[in-house]
Design a protein that fits this description.
With 305 residues, the protein is an alpha+beta fold. It has helices at residues 2-26, 34-41, 45-56, 60-78, 83-89, 95-106, 110-114, 162-179, 186-189, 246-264, 284-290; strands at 120-123, 127-128, 132-133, 137-145, 148-156, 199-206, 209-214, 226-230, 233-239, 267-269, 274-280, 292-301. The chain has two domains: 2-116, Orthogonal Bundle (Arc Repressor Mutant, subunit A), CATH 1.10.10; 145-304, Regulatory factor, effector binding domain (Multidrug-efflux Transporter 1 Regulator Bmrr, Chain A, Alpha-Beta Barrel).
């Protein structure tokens, strides 16, 4: 009985915290009353601030600023509203103040972003579950990709659960690394075995298969390799921080994208294609500092459905 009571209390606490987060999210274009947020969470204002900071690694005010500047960037990219109007909408009383804050978070000015330059430091809406989803920062941009042909090797994953799919992907990459310079790298890309993993690699999930591939132009592709065309279109592109391990960073990115970004955005996934992009280095020191990963998802606006 006591375990049951503890579980009920924990669920009530999570519900209260999520009510507070929903209130904050709905108030980003106005005044956010942290006393009201704490009341909805059924804790004191100080207790709410301390708990939020402990669980997310940022203060509530930092989170609010980050969310506002994320939404402001979306407005800049998706509407023709004047910069001053967007600045006022999210609580800035001048273009200069807004531009400085925008540049601190995103690394570029509102004008530069509107021209299509650079990546965004997006901050996803936080929600409290058994673990925290959202609140992390991830580089993100909407981009128009041209058609791209890649060549590689695939295996079926249809019918597998998510965990089994991850295991399949990790096993394929391990086998690929062990087999370099074999099936796909040295012989076909004319690279020394010690450098065969350097460069950009793709991992595609689509139509019940996972494909590991690279981009290359041949007069005639080697028979052992499958040819896959990545269609041109609008993609939401997400980039991880450099230096991480793929088996940690890619699943974390998937979680943030599909459980936090999509529900809060004006977009939905178009089709079933998901593209992982691996920027790899063989040299140990370079690998620790520079390797990073991207996830590209073709998207369409929700209102078009």
């Amino acid at each position: 009985m006591r375990l049951r009571e503890m579980e009920v209390k924990r669920m009530n606490m999570l519900k209260g915290l999520n009510r507070a987060m929903a209130y904050i999210e709905s108030s980003l274009t106005g005044d956010v009353d942290l006393e009201e947020a704490a009341r909805l969470a059924c804790v004191s204002a100080d207790g709410f601030a301390r708990f939020f900071s402990y669980m997310t690694g940022m203060t509530v005010k930092e989170y609010i600023r980050c969310r506002r500047l994320t939404l402001a960037a979306m407005d800049l990219g998706e509407t023709e509203a004047r910069v001053i109007d967007i600045a006022l909408k999210y609580g800035y009383d001048s273009v200069d103040a807004f531009s400085r804050a925008f540049a601190r978070q995103h690394g570029l000015t509102p004008t530069a972003y509107r021209k299509g330059d650079g990546w965004l430091k997006t901050c996803f809406p936080a929600s409290f579950q058994i673990k925290i989803i959202g609140a992390d920062e991830m580089d993100m941009r909407m981009t128009e990709l041209p058609e791209l042909k890649i060549y590689g090797i695939s295996r079926a994953f249809e019918g597998r659960g998510y965990r089994s799919r991850e295991e399949l992907r990790n096993k394929m990459w391990s086998e690929l690394e062990e087999d370099v310079p074999g099936k796909i790298s040295q012989a076909q890309w004319n690279q020394p075995g010690s450098q065969a993993m350097d460069g950009v690699w793709y991992g595609l999930w689509q139509k019940g298969r996972y494909l590991i591939a690279r981009e290359k132009s041949w007069v005639k592709a080697p028979d052992m390799l499958e040819i896959q065309t990545i269609p041109a279109g609008t993609y939401a592109a997400f980039r991880t921080k450099p230096g991480g391990l793929a088996w940690e960073e890619i699943p974390r990115a998937f979680e943030e994208i599909f459980q936090a970004w999509f529900p809060a955005s004006d977009y939905r996934q178009k089709g079933d294609l998901v593209i992982e992009v691996y920027h790899l280095w063989t040299d140990k020191e370079q690998r620790k500092k520079k390797r990073y990963y991207e996830v590209w998802v073709p998207v369409e606006r929700k209102e078009q459905i």
